[in-house]
Write a structure and sequence with these properties.
Residues 85-184 form the Cytochrome c domain. This protein has 217 residues and is mainly alpha-helical. It has eight helices and two strands, in the order H-H-E-H-H-H-H-H-H-E.
Length: 217
């Protein structure tokens, strides 16, 4: 009886096994085809887009906008604006805008001393030790320390007067710069400063710098 049962089941089992193997082969072929499609895109598929050159941060500025902020004046005079100002004109402007912080003669303070030599004692200024003791910033003088006259112009135009920086016209800045140079004995009382003459003024502090900026433009 066992032989009869085995003879009946064996053909059915073999048929089932053959069907299972055939199904597995078909599934395997289909899976391999799908994997190859994912791994190797067809030649007709579009290439990935290149990243944008501008990432979208900030706002582009026009040359006119940049010119409003590109106001740095270099030691050799490059970037000085048109205009002119006299010592006499600068004296009036200095009394209006500068004397309250720097003193009538540029030495009284309380802000930085603009005139004279550096140090605690000045033979031409017997009261200097008292002012330096009260305002230590007074130990250094713009007239003695700063190496280039063009830097005086740049700083005055950029940051002065303290309560209203950038409120002075270029002519007014030239005038105040001329007055400060005159107070330091570097230009005559009738001097007129402009973009050509200002870079020619030799400041006492130039020899104290590590290297001199070339004068040619």
């Amino acid at each position: 009886m066992r032989e009869d049962l085995c003879s009946q089941l064996l053909p059915a089992g073999r048929a089932t096994l053959r069907r299972g193997v055939a199904v597995a082969m078909v599934v395997g072929l289909l899976s391999a085809g799908r994997a190859s499609e994912v791994q190797a895109p067809s030649a007709a598929a579009p290439a990935p887009a290149a990243p944008p050159l501008v990432i979208g941060l900030g706002q582009p500025l026009s040359p006119a906008d940049i010119d409003r902020y590109a106001i740095t004046v270099f030691p050799n005079g490059r970037n000085l604006p048109p205009g002119r100002g006299s010592v006499e004109q600068g004296a009036r402007l200095y009394a209006m805008h500068c004397a309250a912080c720097h003193g009538a003669q540029g030495i009284e303070g309380p802000a930085a001393r603009l005139v004279g030599t550096d140090g605690f004692i000045g033979w031409s200024d017997p009261l200097r030790p008292l002012r330096v003791r009260k305002y230590p910033l007074q130990v250094l003088s713009v007239g003695a320390m700063w190496p280039y006259a063009t830097t005086v112009f740049d700083y005055v135009r950029r940051g002065m007067p303290m309560h209203a920086p950038k409120s002075l016209t270029d002519d007014e800045v030239y005038g105040i710069t001329a007055h400060l140079l005159h107070l330091n004995g570097l230009v005559a009382g009738d001097a007129l400063m402009d973009k050509e003459k200002l870079p020619q003024v030799v400041m006492p502090g130039r020899d104290r710098t590590v290297s001199a900026w070339p004068q040619e433009r």
